Amino acid sequence: DGGITQSPKYLFRKEGQNVTLSCEQNLNHDAMYWYRQDPGQGLRLIYYSQIVNDFQKGDIAEGYSVSREKKESFPLTVTSAQKNPTAFYLCASSMVAQETQYFGPGTRLLVL
Amino acid sequence: KNEVEQSPQNLTAQEGEFITINCSYSVGISALHWLQQHPGGGIVSLFMLSSGKKKHGRLIATINIQEKHSSLHITASHPRDSAVYICAPRANTGNQFYFGTGTSLTVIP
User: What are the pLDDT digits (tens) for B44-83?
Assistant: First the structure.
């Protein structure tokens, strides 16, 4: 059963804490993406990666970091520098960049 | 500034009605993605199209690149179609998708 998984479904962050959101895909896709969704706004691109060991900043990369050590995995770290992290985070992948994107179920991050 | 405008923002329909959701954009694009977001948050890709029309079951998507407009139609709507529908044009250059804020559809039995 191919697809994208994200974990956890809900994540709580304390002040000054870094947290990492997991994204795994077994679709053999080269490109992976992280988006942030806030109420009343469209999805905004945080980071994307077209190939292993390479990634590019999106529109709102400040306060976030990523890694792409394996093709299947693209974890997102929300650092303490991100002052407004409460949002719904979606991971997506595509066979190659610019093609149809497949989305994971999302992680909702809340600040305590 | 919004590169993508969707209308209507909210739509309530009776089961069986024909539904149209519109998307206009202001940037040059090479294709356009229609997405469906379920109440739990998961997003499903419905169509990616760059010209003309595509049909899948009761869903039909059309696009006119020159007029910078796309529509998503749902025939014989059903309560399970209740979701947020998102238009996402793909930029001509780079790897950017622009995302609309979505149209929230509720289909009443």
Answer: 999 999 999 999 999 999 999 889 999 999 999 999 999 9
Q: How far off is chain A from B8, nearest CA to CA, in Å?
A: 14
In chain A, the residue whose alpha carbon lies closest to the alpha carbon of B43 is A103
Which of A37, A46, A107 best probes binding to B when mutated, by most B CB atoms within 10 angstroms? A37
d(CA A25, CA A29): 8
d(CA A44, CA A82): 15
Cβ–Cβ of B88/A100 closer than 8 Å? no
Partner residue facing A41 (CB), from B88, B98, B101: B101
Q: Is A66 within 8 Å of A55 (Cβ atoms)?
A: yes
The answer to whether the bond into A85 is cis (omega within 30° of 0) is: no
B95: tokens are 């790897």
What's the per-residue H, E or C state across A39-75?
A: CCCCCEEEEEEEECCEEEECCCCCCEEECCCECCECC
Q: What is the pLDDT of residues A4-59, one digit of tens each?
A: 999 999 999 888 899 999 999 999 999 999 999 998 888 999 999 999 999 999 99
